[in-house]
Structures are given as C-alpha cells and as structure tokens.
C-alpha cells in the first residue's frame, strides 16, 4: 500500500522542539536541609545533567537554561564567587561527556563579565562541540533579556541599516538565540511566577509552565508532567480555535 493510501494515523502528541528553563530554587532546597546555599547549587548542576539526558531521550532538539542572570551579581560576594567556581568546574568536567553524547554546547550572555579562564573554557567547549546535532544546550550566563535586545540594536545600527529598514526579523536575527527556533515551552521551577529578565523577545508565544518543585528536585517525571501540560495546550498565535483545528499541521 502506498503511503498516500495508508489510513490516517493519530497525530502523535508533539514533543516541544525547544525548551527554556529558569532553574530556580537551589537556595531554598539547601536551606530546607540546613545546608549552605552552595550545596543547593551543586545539586542544581546534577539536576541539569539529568535534564540534558532526559531532553535528549525525548527528542527535544534545543534546551536553553538560565544559569546566572545579569542581576545575580547583586548576591553576596561569597555566593557569586562560589557560583563562578562551580561554573568553571562544570566547564572543566562536563564538556567531554556532553561531546560524547553529541551535544552542542554554547553560552549566551555578556561573557566579558567572566574571568579569562572561564571565557577560554567557554570558547574551547563551543568550538569542540559545534558540529554536534543531537541536542543544542544553550546556557544563559550573565544574560539578561534587556541586554540581549540592546546588543541586537547596537549590532543593527553598526551595520548601517536605515531606521525604515528595521523589521522584526532583522532585529530577531541579531539576538543571542537567532539561529534557534523560539522556545515552545518555558519552565520555571521554584514557585515564582515571573520571567526575571530571561528571554523577553523570544518568549512572545511560548507556552509558560510554572511549578513549585525546586530545581534540584526537578527530575524526568517532573519534565514529563511539564511536557504533558504543553501537549494539552492549543497554540493559536492570534487565530481562532476553529482556524487552528482546520489547519492543524499547516504553518501559514
Ligand atoms: C537559582 O537558584 C540559581 C541561581 C540563580 C544561580 P536560587 O539560588 O535563586 O535559589 P532560591 O531562589 O534562593 O531558592
Ligand atoms: C532567575 O532566578 C535567574 C536564574 C535562575 C539564573 P533568581 O532567583 O535570580 O530570580 P528572582 O531574583 O527571584 O527574580
Ligand atoms: Mg531564586
């Protein structure tokens, strides 16, 4: 039987192509156990390791995580130092495993805020993993959504573009995640229901999911619950429900 005459199979529920996560709640996780905050951050790195694997296994193509915001420098200097230390050690120890698992790694944010050593590790890791295609892991570090829009505008202006020629597409093309599809699903752990200056432009039509689960406790079952919630949503992009149902699977 030719493919054209096959009985219509039920459309499998779609796995989000791109998931963006605010990994929040490490400090509270530690506090509940009477441990120092950094113990929560260490657990947070483990949780991220599990999440990368779970996303790859489920066929998610892009995972973008918020690791350190441009506002997190306001934390006590001891915590900032420990976070930088943890970031450096994660870069030193995890990249080989990512590469083995065919994961492309990159960092978005104002890298000039980091030590030379961290900047070198980031550049090396990006170069080493650039041709991997199983999953793109993007870590947002010293990142702010407003910073991203401003740096995009600067790039556009430097290119000499005239104001009338600026379009949504040309501005989007200069943003940090320009080469990725916009996130389908946004997850914030830790109970707060805010964006905290994460991806501002890119989340315009992303499905938002908030959970009280603290980041170190966010495991593959918790991911499945978030994906199941996503799969129950109807993404209308401004249209009516009837239009969406009549054109399911058709983009324009
Ligand atoms: C998120 O956990 C990690 C970073 C911001 C680096 P928090 O450290 O914000 O944890 P809570 O919100 O204090 O519990
Ligand atoms: C957002 O979490 C940033 C990261 C998870 C890296 P915060 O804990 O810094 O956010 P606020 O301060 O509660 O908004
Ligand atoms: Mg927090």
Uncertain runs with pLDDT below 50, 5 residues or more? Answer: 1-11
Which class of secondary structure composition applies to the elements? alpha/beta
Can you tell me the CATH architecture? 3-Layer(aba) Sandwich
Radius of gyration: 20 Å
Helix percentage range: 40-55%
Terminal CA distance reads 30 Å
What's the helix count?
Answer: 8
CATH first level: which class? Alpha Beta
Order of strands, widest sheet:
3-4-2-1-5-6
User: In percent, how much strand structure appears in the residues?
Assistant: 5-15%
Write down the secondary-structure element order: EHHEHEHEHHEEHH
CATH fold label: Undecaprenyl pyrophosphate synthetase
Q: Tally of extended strands?
A: 6
| Tally of separate domains | 1
Shape assignment = globular
- Structure ligands: 3-methylbut-3-enyl trihydrogen diphosphate, magnesium ion
Largest sheet: 6 strands, parallel
Explain what this protein looks like in three dimensions.
This protein has one domain (14-144, 183-233): Undecaprenyl pyrophosphate synthetase. The protein has helices spanning 26-32, 37-57, 77-100, 116-129, 145-158, 168-172, 220-231, 241-246, and strands spanning 18-22, 62-69, 103-108, 135-143, 185-188, 207-210. The chain has 252 residues and is an alpha/beta fold. Helix 4 links the parallel strand 3 and strand 4. Mean pLDDT is 94; it is low at 1-11. The two termini are 30 Å apart. It is built from 8 helices and 6 strands, in the order E-H-H-E-H-E-H-E-H-H-E-E-H-H. The chain is globular and about 55 Å long. The structure holds 3-methylbut-3-enyl trihydrogen diphosphate (2 copies) and magnesium ion (MG). Magnesium ion is lined by residues 24, 190.
């Amino acid at each position: 039987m030719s493919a054209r005459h096959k009985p219509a199979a039920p459309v499998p529920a779609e796995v989000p192509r791109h998931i963006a996560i605010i990994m929040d709640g490490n400090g509270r996780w530690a506090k509940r156990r009477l441990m120092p905050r950094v113990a929560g951050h260490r657990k947070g790195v483990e949780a991220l390791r599990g999440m990368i694997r779970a996303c790859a296994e489920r066929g998610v193509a892009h995972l973008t995580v918020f690791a350190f915001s441009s506002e997190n420098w306001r934390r006590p200097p001891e915590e900032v130092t420990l976070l930088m230390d943890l970031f450096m050690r994660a870069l030193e120890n995890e990249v080989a495993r990512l590469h083995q698992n065919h994961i492309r790694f990159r960092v978005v944010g104002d890298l000039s805020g980091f030590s030379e050593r961290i900047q070198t590790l980031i550049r090396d890791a990006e170069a080493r993993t650039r041709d991997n295609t199983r999953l793109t892991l993007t870590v947002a570090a010293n990142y702010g959504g407003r910073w991203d829009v401003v740096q995009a505008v600067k790039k556009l202006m430097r290119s000499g573009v005239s104001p009338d020629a600026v379009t949504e597409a040309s501005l989007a093309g200069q943003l940090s995640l320009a080469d990725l599809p916009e996130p389908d699903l946004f997850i914030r752990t830790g109970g707060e229901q805010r964006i905290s200056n994460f991806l501002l432009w890119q989340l315009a039509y992303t499905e938002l999911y908030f959970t009280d689960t603290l980041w170190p406790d966010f495991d593959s079952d918790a991911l499945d619950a978030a994906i199941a919630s996503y799969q129950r949503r109807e993404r209308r992009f401004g249209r009516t429900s009837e239009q969406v149902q009549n054109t399911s699977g058709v983009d324009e």
